[in-house]
């Protein structure tokens, strides 16, 4: 009987090890599969394309990771990206017209980036304010701000595209397109992803702010009773998500050298998928930046791999939806298994 118990425990540990490493395993399987399915999968241009997409999914996914860790969700990220891109494009091409004074002000590149990022932070603050002050569910709140942001993006240009957003030397607003270029062969988006990931990972792991949001996701009531400022930290998390989305919107606009109000449609699913595939629990309290980046690679490989194989865009949505559901089911299975193992350990300790 003792041998059976040891054997059963060994099997359980093996399953847990497999579950913890599932993200890397899935990525390896996908890379191997698409390398056979598409002869050009390992081409340099393909790698650069995937890297650019992964940067967008990764940056947005990091912000989403913080939100999900607190037990929330942010459906506005794609719309915020579109709005921030439109703000940047409008400031570059048209400047800011002050009707009462009859003048148009053109800003330098640093100010354009700062204002566009501030738009994302402001919407993030609005999300956090409504959720914490009025106790509105994050799903409903961010669904509402998603529509607000998307509507504002269209109102900015009456639904038109800001094309050729390169600026003019005489106005001092050139250089925005460098956000979409490569530096020493590395896409600028990837460099920005690395910088944001390092900061976000350090904040989450080594600072009181990171410990507090993990505690909030684990049990918000207990966190509040222990002295943690739940409302303040939750609002900061949504502001960070808005900031990440705004950065993604600007990078995307720079890559296309154009800003369109529909940019970012459906990107919230990519952000959620990257976070969940990376091990962030939809129940809150668990998540990591590194895992989300690996999850972003999975989404990027799936999207670009299926496109290269000629898979219909409609089927791609179906497959990604299945992947997200499967990831949540596996996460729940892992949590249940961990709870069972902990209970067994306590019983054996008695």
Automatic annotation (TrEMBL):
Q: Where in the cell is it found?
A: Cell membrane
* Protein name (database record): ABC transporter permease
Ranges annotated as spanning the membrane: 21-42, 54-73, 80-99, 105-126, 183-206, 236-259, 271-302
* UniProt keyword list: Cell inner membrane, Cell membrane, Membrane, Transmembrane, Transmembrane helix, Transport
Its placement in the membrane is given as: Multi-pass membrane protein
Which InterPro entries does the entry link to?
ABC_transp_permease
Matching entries from Pfam families are given as: BPD_transp_2
Signal peptide region = none
Would the keyword Membrane turn up in this protein's UniProt record? yes
């Amino acid at each position: 009987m003792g041998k059976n118990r040891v054997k059963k425990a060994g099997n359980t540990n093996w399953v847990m090890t497999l579950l913890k490493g599932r993200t890397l395993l899935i990525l390896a399987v996908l890379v191997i599969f698409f390398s056979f399915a598409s002869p050009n999968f390992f081409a340099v241009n393909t790698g650069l394309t995937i890297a650019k997409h992964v940067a967008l999914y990764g940056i947005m996914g990091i912000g989403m990771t913080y939100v999900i860790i607190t037990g929330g969700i942010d459906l506005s990220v794609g719309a915020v990206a579109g709005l921030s891109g439109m703000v940047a494009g409008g400031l570059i091409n048209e400047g800011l017209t002050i009707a009462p004074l009859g003048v148009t002000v053109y800003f330098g590149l640093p100010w354009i980036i700062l204002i566009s990022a501030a738009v994302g932070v402001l919407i993030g603050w609005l999300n956090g304010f409504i959720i914490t002050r009025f106790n509105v569910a994050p799903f409903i709140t961010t669904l509402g701000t998603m529509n607000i942001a998307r509507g504002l993006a269209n109102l900015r240009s009456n639904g038109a595209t800001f094309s050729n957003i390169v600026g003019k030397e005489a106005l001092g607003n050139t250089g925005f397109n460098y956000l979409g270029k490569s530096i020493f062969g590395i896409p600028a988006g990837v460099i920005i992803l690395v910088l944001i990931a390092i900061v976000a990972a350090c904040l989450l792991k080594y600072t009181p702010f990171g410990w507090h949001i993990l505690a909030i996701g684990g049990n918000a009531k207990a966190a509040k009773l222990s002295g943690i400022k739940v409302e303040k930290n939750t609002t900061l998390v949504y502001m960070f998500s808005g900031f990440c989305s705004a950065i993604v919107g600007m990078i995307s606009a720079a890559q296309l050298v154009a800003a369109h109000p529909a940019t970012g449609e459906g990107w919230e699913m990519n952000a959620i998928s990257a976070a969940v595939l990376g091990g962030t629990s939809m129940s809150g309290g668990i998540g990591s930046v590194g895992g989300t980046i690996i999850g972003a690679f999975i989404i990027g490989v799936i999207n670009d791999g299926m496109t290269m194989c000629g898979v219909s865009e409609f089927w791609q949505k179906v497959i990604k939806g299945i992947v997200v559901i499967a990831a949540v089911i596996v996460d729940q299975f892992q949590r249940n298994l961990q709870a069972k193992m902990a209970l067994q350990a306590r019983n054996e300790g008695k």
